[in-house]
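Appendix B. Raw example, untouched.
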Amino acid sequence: MALSWSEFIRAQAESMIACDFFTVDTILLRRIYVLFFIEISTRRVHIAGMTENPDGAWVAQQARNLVWEFADRRTPPRFLIRDNDAKFNGAFGEVLRGEGIGIVRTPIEAPKANAIAERFVGTVRRECLDWLLIANRRHLERILRTFVDHYNGHRPHRALNLAAPDRVNVVPMPAIPPTVTRIGRRDRLGGLIHEYSFAA
């Protein structure tokens, strides 16, 4: 019996990652391409890099960096979901296949096939980039580093029962609600993002 796409994703989620590009235009009208990877099971995001010229050599190097980052994991990824973007050239695929990572290409004009990556692009735009003017690549790096730290460490995800991908930073709610609780708030990106936690 053949599995549906969603059944395949659920069955293989622990061993899958997805990748995609999104673009950011600076105030000087320079277009920066951002390549990211997202772990399907945990929704943890890794910003691979950003450049104004994502040629084949650059993209292949990002694949090498990813393989190196996942090398020490007990269960490294077995599959990578990507779209048919021409920037994912032959060298990109060779690096991944050489490490035993199979590439699953989504059908043409089917964004739902890579829905988890597409969802992150929408989230980073709605919650961060649509509210800021980006001066240059260095500024964008600082913004995205802060946002991804928040996304991985503090932002609740429905798919994770309102936990964050890095569950280490999440304080579980007590079984019995406390009578008096002080809540601490940490503002990030100039107050664009608020992170809340129980204060001691």
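End of appendix B.
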